[in-house]
Specification:
396 residues; mainly alpha; Growth Hormone, Chain: A; 2 domains; 18 helices; globular
Length: 396
């Protein structure tokens, strides 16, 4: 299977996975909550619970892919997604719905971006950068595809039918796509971890094929984990409250909604830039650009108010489009490909935990300080940028 075909298959499967999990409540929270006697906010709280479960399972997911390759893990995830969504569709009560969201969180832990990145690195080693960019480019349309489909499913069959339809798509589409991925033994460019290596790779600070001294590797691991956490706080907080933030700047509701829709195209544009010009430069350049984009955008919004609604959305979206790629490519450049999956799970664990809490925390800040809340996210992003400015890539 050629790399381009791998990217197409895995990118399509990732689009399906994101559309039927992270983006599901936007269309189904209200009808789901109404039938089961819950507040819509409770459904979003269940999504946060699922994201926390996903984060905690990240290291185990990466370790499993390091050992067995991505194909069997992602195939199992297709079935896990289907089972969780089927349970959600049949949930007779709130406790069963909680169980279904917990099961969906487990599937997300083994089946979203970090697992896909680990699968690509297991196949292509240090040459995985373009493939990582390719799948994020395709899956960047998950909300564009997922929200209309979910809305149509719900209008046609109700929210239970929508969950059942997504479960069927995981079996009929996602499972065959993941089953078509190359087997590690036949196609991998990276040898399996050596005996005893998984004990080392279970920690983000382990020696990883770049000739790093353990102490330096430890410092780099802590620094990257902190940078990714800062990026995740900003990304998740803004993504879930963008229309409300633009309204706080003085934009009307129709203008805020229409302007917020520009973030998706801006993210895709950034990923095209990474696939083209930026791929000829070290990923540290893209990481620094990603970290600085939000403070620049925030400065415009704080200074110009509603006049800067569009520039804010576009500039923030460009940076946010690079953030997802950087989380996959920068650790590869710093540590190499050995033990990548397990290390990636540990490096992104703080980011995924804080990303799950960020929508709630940013919502509180927005309610209390209004537009001033964006100053808080700008400060967090600048702290992440400062960490990247002191980072130096090891010599190859």
């Amino acid at each position: 299977m050629k790399p381009a075909a791998v990217v197409l298959a895995l990118g399509t499967a990732q689009t399906l996975a994101w559309a039927s999990s992270f983006y599901l409540p936007a269309m189904l929270a209200a009808p789901m909550a109404a039938e089961l006697g819950l507040a819509p906010a409770t459904v979003y709280a269940l999504l946060s619970m699922a994201l926390l479960i996903s984060a905690l399972l990240g290291p185990l997911s990466g370790r499993t892919i390091d050992r067995h390759g991505g194909r069997p893990v992602l195939m199992g995830c297709s079935l896990a997604f289907a089972a969780a969504l089927a349970l959600m569709a049949a949930a007779p009560s709130a406790p069963v719905l909680v169980l279904a969201w917990a099961a969906l969180g487990a599937a997300m832990g083994f089946g979203l971006y970090d697992a896909a990145f680990a699968a690509l690195v297991r196949l292509y080693g240090g040459q995985a950068r373009s493939a990582i960019t390719g799948i994020t480019l395709l899956a960047g349309f998950a909300s564009t595809v997922g929200w209309p489909l979910t809305a149509w499913f719900e209008a046609t069959w109700g929210w239970r039918g929508a969950c059942a339809a997504w479960a069927a798509l995981h079996v009929l589409v996602g499972l065959p796509l993941n089953a078509g991925l190359p087997r590690v033994g036949a196609a991998a460019m990276v040898p399996p971890p050596a005996p005893g290596a998984e004990a080392q790779s279970a920690q983000p600070t382990a020696e990883a094929g770049r000739g790093l001294a353990p102490q330096r590797a430890r410092r780099l691991g802590v620094l990257l984990a902190a940078v990714f956490a800062a990026m995740s706080v900003v990304s998740a907080g803004i993504a879930t409250h963008l229309p409300a933030l633009l309204q706080a700047s003085g934009a009307s509701l129709p203008v805020a909604v229409a302007t917020a829709a520009l973030m998706g195209p801006a993210q895709v544009a950034a990923r095209l830039l990474e696939l083209g010009w930026l791929r000829h430069h070290p990923p540290l350049l893209a990481a620094r650009a990603a970290a600085l984009a939000h403070p620049v955008a925030a400065g415009l919004l704080l200074t110009l108010g509603p006049l800067a609604a569009m520039p804010f959305t576009v500039v923030h979206g460009l940076g946010n489009g690079l953030v997802t790629i950087v989380r996959g490519t920068l650790p590869l450049a710093v540590f190499g490909s050995a033990g990548y999956g397990a290390r990636q799970g540990w490096l992104t664990l703080p980011a995924r935990v804080l990303g799950a809490l960020s929508p709630w925390l940013f919502g509180l800040a927005l309610a209390r300080w209004g537009l001033g809340a964006v100053g808080l996210t700008a400060a967090v992003a600048l702290a992440g940028a400062a960490g990247l400015w002191v980072l130096r890539l090891p010599a190859r």
